[in-house]
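Recall the central idea of this unit: under ordinary conditions, the amino acid sequence of a chain determines the structure it adopts. In this exercise we apply that idea directly, starting from the sequence alone.
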Amino acid sequence: MVIGFGLFIAAAQQPGGPTGKAAPKGGVQGRLTWFDRQGKVVGTTGESGLYRTLTISPDGKRIAVERTDPQTMNRDIWLLEVATGVTTRFTSDPGWDAFPIWSPNGSRIIFTSNRGGVYDLYEKAANGAGEEKLLYQSSEGKGPTSWSHDGRYLLYYSLGQPTHLRLLTVAGEADRKAVPLVDPQFTSITGRFSPDGRWIAYTSNESGMNEVSVRPFDPATGSAGNPVVVTSGGGRTPLWRGDGKEIFYFTPDGTVTAMEVKAGSAFQAGSPKPLFQAPSGVVFWDVSPDGTRFLMPAPGA
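Accordingly, the structure predicted from this sequence is:
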């Protein structure tokens, strides 16, 4: 099983619920830490804390991250300035807020919250102005992972076992229907649109084992094509470089790996290049737009 599958819902079911004192699965107590491509620590940001889901803004200047308040144990989203480390609380609802993702222009953030009982999707201006509004609700929990470059589509995965990738239009009624990206007989997770919006990278077991795959995506029709398996021997949690010319992923043993790709009308993948071993316990991560630095919560940093 790919590390990270079902982690969110398993934590939500711990005694005490989302405001209990048990640490959430996939959370790391430490500092948000920058690593270069050789695995050298090149900086930290923010104070020490219990961190979990995170994303870097499209311009690389801000970070949205799920963090547990050490006093109340409430799990909210915080924003950090990369250059200064200045931290601002973004949500403060008593529910569990997580999985922040940025709009293509960095002006808005979508996240999941169980404030209404089910983990539904909410949206709010990234500058903190205005109220959080319900964007999408359904009977299953949702973990959003990517917002398409044209702003029209979202990718999320169902929270639970097994996990399933869904494609959702941003605009529409709050109870509109999402479309499965991968046949539900398979487990699929952590979908990411390519920077040009023409490909989707994700993890699934549709090839017989948990691998990183890509599918062509047509923004005009909102439809995805057949999968192309990118990894061999296992892969999880893929990320795109900002220009779409490289994919990064974890191998089963936690090695950060790079792969040059050509994602035009057809998809071509180069040879995998192991970079460094990720810190123990890391599940959620992101990469700077230029592909030179990786952001992860590092234990004890």
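The mean pLDDT is 91.
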